[in-house]
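Subject: Sanity check before I submit

Could someone independently write out the structure tokens for this chain? I want to compare against mine line by line before I put it in a report. The sequence has 243 residues.
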Amino acid sequence: MKLYVIGIGPGSPSQITPQALHAMQESQVIVGYTVYVDLVRPLFPNKEYITTAMKREEDRCRMAVDRALQGSNVAVVCSGDSGVYGMAGLVLTMAQGTGLDVEIIPGMTAATTGAALLGAPLTHDFAVISLSDLLTPLATIEKRLECAAEADFVIVLYNPMSHKRRDYLQKACDIILKYRGPQTPAGFARNIGRDGEEGFVLPLGELRNAQVDMFTTVFIGNSHSRVIDGKLVTPRGYGVEGV
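---
Independent answer below. Compare away.
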């Protein structure tokens, strides 16, 4: 039996890859966080679904492994890419030694889909950092922000704010502002690929006080990033970019 770990993209059916659709079609059981499962349920209304709430990642991955061992093709669905803050690593760990055939199906992650909404901020080197401290100590997150800012990476921030972390984006911006000016081009994308999708380009100094949530992805340019016709762009180094 097959156990798929599938990235379904940011939410829009048009951004689910044919490979992901085929894997879900081949599965008898689809497992995932309730919000993500609801995005694919209309496409496959006759499948068996197993859902859990947030923070129960281990439970649903264990249930997926168990159902696959019982003889079903099972799909674990993840928002974005299955290996970028997704369940791929956890499923592979839980399935080790079972003999299950595990296949990882990639998807479109918020870094790339959000970047397309804002322009072309990731044309050169970039770093992706989650501000969620549920699984990573805050001191580690701050160290990574410090190093990425000092190295002049374009920085993408996942999970920039929650009800319990209202000031984490401000803290992140304050760290980055030690190395970059307040006029550094930045932006954020919200509800990518879903109802209410919107993107904003603004200076880093204003980003510090922006109203964001867990469905927002934040982009902070490097020393070469600029705004071109309202779009956030990081040059790659082609001569024409200096025109």
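---
OP: Matches mine. For the report I'm noting this point. The domain at 110-233 is CATH 3.30.950.10 (Methyltransferase, Cobalt-precorrin-4 Transmethylase; Domain 2).
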